[in-house]
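Lab notebook: predicted structure, single chain.

Context: the supervisor wants predicted structures on file for every construct in the current expression panel, including those that have not yet been purified. This is the next one on the list. No modifications to the sequence; it matches the entry in the shared construct table.
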Amino acid sequence: MVRVSGIFLDQTPGSLVGAFLDLTSGTLRLTLSEPMKVASLVPELLVIQSGASDVYTTTGVQLSRGAIPISNDGITVSYNLSSADLNAIKTNTQLGISTSTTFLKALPGFIVDMAGVNATGTPANASIDASFESDLSRPSLLSYSLTMQNGSLPVVLSLKFTESMVADQVDITEFTLLSGREPGAQSFTFTGHANKSMHDTDTIHVTLLDSDILTMRSATPNVARDANSTYLILTSKAASDMNSQDVLAILQPSALRAALFDIDMEQPSVLAFDLDLKRGFVILTMSEAIVLETVDLTQLRIQNDKNSSRASQNFSLEFSAVQSDVASKFTVEIQLDSATLDAFKTSRSTGRLENYTFLAIESSFCLDRANNSFALLDDPVVLQVQNITLDDAAPIASHVSIDMNISILSISFNEPIDIFSTNIAAQISITTAIGELAYVNLSGYSVASLYESQFSRVLHLQMTKEDSNELKRSGQIATSVLNTAVSFGNDLVMDTNNVWNLPSELQCSGFTPDFSSPKLLNWTLDEDSGILGLKFDEPAFLGFTSFNVSSGTIIFQLSEPANLNFFNASARSGPCATSNLRTRL
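Prediction complete. Output recorded below exactly as produced.
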């Protein structure tokens, strides 16, 4: 054995001679010119860039401290990139796409050789061509959070994946929320999104549609009430990574529970209200969605003054109805009952003028989706109406009836009418049925004295004696609902907004026959001609089995008349329907 007489340490610095980037495993493999101290690797002095020259360094990804580098021989060093670095490479659409877009820049001292000499960096404006293997691993959803609406803020679903994703390739319609993992759990599949944005390279925030949240709350009320009722499943088409690898599907037995559920803590409030007299609705604009089933209409009233103690008119909405099929979750539509709607239409102020229309709301009015009660800023909350839509639609006759006993024709409309606007010159025809030619055109009529106010839904018309007798005399019309129809034009009466009625032709739906006995008004007896003249107050049917004429104490027994003559009987009347009769004895 010979003793070494001298040692000359290696003073030649090592260098980087090759690199391989594996995006599937997230590994960067370095090939060095000589064995190096692996533990001395400084990742911060390495830059992965899309071009060879230094101009690409500023747009590249400077590595950060990750896992401990590994090497068996000190020449080939494997280094697992940090999640942040790997995601940064994947999200850079100009970097790591192929070998022509993958270069490694090394700065001096990125590693030290066995003699403690710093390795050289890559030359200026030059980088090592890195071999490249694209990402072939499929991403998966790691966790998610759901921030429910907090007042006017949107509902946001935040999705955290195992790697960088493309926000534009997240299809929210492939995601379904469940109330639990068990069979039969309620489920809701999203129909779209309002907005999507990337956060921290691997997290995507999706702003959900208001319409989806409304439908989910009404159709699947057990879903997303809290963290324990919020589970998520998705199909493989729900998202894809930077290399277009589809996400791994999640099925119901493995549904992912929400990692964070931010419940709504803000109380709902009414921002504004409108009154639509044409449709018959009070429309409330809410600060957020509410549970329609919790609405208590006894807590609402419409009054004529902002100060409730000064209000002289108060209209309760107790008998109105909440519409459950509204399109917007921020809108509550209340259909007024007919009595309240009529009261507004006939009012001179409340419900007709903005300065005299206020909504008073008590604290128990409603709950929101998180069971927050109505925000009572004042007791009660009072809002002035924002818009009033007057009813410009023409009134429509709904049905008619005739009382032949008192000669009154009654016409009912679908809204209040102004009795004082009745056009007594308008033509009204009475026929045997709809579509038949006029049998009797009323020659005149007047408004019956049956009203306590100017406005009513029913117009009562007093027929003239002549027209009433004409109907009675015919024997073929106005004897029941089956042979009585009424028609009139568009100039009979106006509604409370001065709109004339629509023309109508209606079969009679109510009929009262004449049950009063005819009265003998006067009689005459011509002894020379033997003619007895009788005048009744209406057409009468006469029989002559016995008939006595009394003059003082003398009674004449009349035999069957030789002939009868009728007067004031139309050509259509029968031989025994008249109010004037002469008979030859």
